[in-house]
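Bug #77: duplicate submission created two jobs. Keeping one. Sequence:
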Amino acid sequence: MIEFKILKKSKKSRARIGLLKTAHGVVETPCLVPVATQGVIKTLTSEEVEETNTLILIANTFHLHLKPGEEIIKRAGGLHKFMNWSKPIMTDSGGFQVFSLGFGRDFGVGKILKYFPGQNLETIKKTKQPKFLKITPEGIYFQSPLDGKKLFLGPKESIKIQEKLGADIIFSFDECTAPLSSVEYVKEAIKRTHNWAEICLKTKKSKQTLFGIVQGSRFKNLRQESAKFINSLNFDGFGIGGDLGKDKETMKKIINWTIPYLQESKPRHLLGIGKLEDIEYY
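Kept job's structure:
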């Protein structure tokens, strides 16, 4: 488990400085969390990453499940020993791959839309399915990007994989929506995400810290509904996920809609955003 202490809060914004204590060290917040998707930062050794004064890394449940597999990592002593990394680690639940291998791949868009005049922001209707995966109330049927084989990942599977990986902080399984989603589609997506959040809490048996993820796309009422619901559950912290609109201005609005409904005493993480200019808004 973790301890989170807020040291100072801004009088001009919601910015705060804090200490996040984990079993593998203390993280000074706010901080950048570099992405070690498959247990490694590309082009760098763990020793080289440590030289950058990085305090925490995030690896990916879906990709580690594919290769080398959570059983191999568990036998190696968990992610920390597997990566030769002694500091804290987070693992994303695999929910981002619902987007990146789904509608994100179909339409060639990222979490923040590369907007062009005339592009239809309501392209993804309520019942639409991505080309290369199937979204169901129980979870997601993926097609492996390695060999094309079909595999299923749902909230129970995600938690069990993350428990075997052994990161300090894990995330609930969610559906990361695309920025071209209609309001009708996003309503259905957050229903799935909220149901999966409850299942994740019931499934977890380890002492790992579990963060719940707020969704709702660019729609204010849905963001606030999701934030209230996730906050009402017994999560140790929060992730702000999903697509973040058509530009950085929309992203700032989404953050401002969300944060007031999240318990301030708990840590929060803005998923998938990490440019220098983003830090002051969060």
